[in-house]
Amino acid sequence: MSGKPRLTYLNGRGRMEPVRWLLAAAGVEFEEVFLETREQYEKLIKDGVLMFQQVPLVEIDGMKMVQTRAILSYIAGKYNLYGKDLKERALIDMYVEGISDLMHMILMFHFSPPDAKEKNIDSVKDRATNRYFPVFEKVLKQHGQDFLVGNKFSWADVQLTEAILAVEEKIPAVLSEFPQLQAFKVRMTNMPTIKKFLQPGSPRKPPPDDHYVETVIKIFK
């Protein structure tokens, strides 16, 4: 086995996509193992690899890590994307948790019944434009720096960039009233590591389709 982190999940975004984003933004190459059957998942449980019988699973530095938040915190700390002190880390944690709440709505959208999708899009738009994006628009304006915390690229910047692009896939004009976030998006997507991750052929996964949803249900339900 190489020294690269090894990610075990489905061949889709889900809860692993923030991990892919963070590793890619840190310039870290990784390997992936894709679950396609329930038998593969059950074997991981039988082998005692999944502490809480859940994926994502990330093998890194001799550890078999589970729980998305723990994985992301470790990667952020390892690659110096977690602030310079406890106060900066607390800010990053708050921002990341807020963004995660918004991303959860996006995550669940594809599993909602067809007749509920339009209503759910409206809910995402409402939360994004009235609760979450105004916070970051204000932070960037008052902070007066290129990044959310300190004047250094961090996990919070990565997570916000992922969220902006995910929401824009559903609501293309969602940033129309947020000039600070528009400029932020341009800065972040032009950073070399992120720009590379956004290119065709990268490990970034496309929006979930019916096949992905069916695979999730087949393996985990």
From TrEMBL:
InterPro entries according to UniProt: Glutathione-S-Trfase_C-like, Glutathione-S-Trfase_C_sf, Glutathione_S-Trfase, Glutathione_S-Trfase_N, GST_alpha, GST_C, GST_superfamily, Thioredoxin-like_sf
Residue ranges of every copy of the GST C-terminal domain listed in the record: 85-209
GO terms under biological process: glutathione metabolic process
Gene Ontology molecular function: glutathione transferase activity
Enzyme Commission code: 2.5.1.18
Pfam families linked to this entry: GST_C_3, GST_N
Domain GST N-terminal: 3-83
Residues in the signal sequence: none
Keyword set, alphabetical order: Transferase
Assigned protein family: Belongs to the GST superfamily. Alpha family.
Protein's name in the database: glutathione transferase
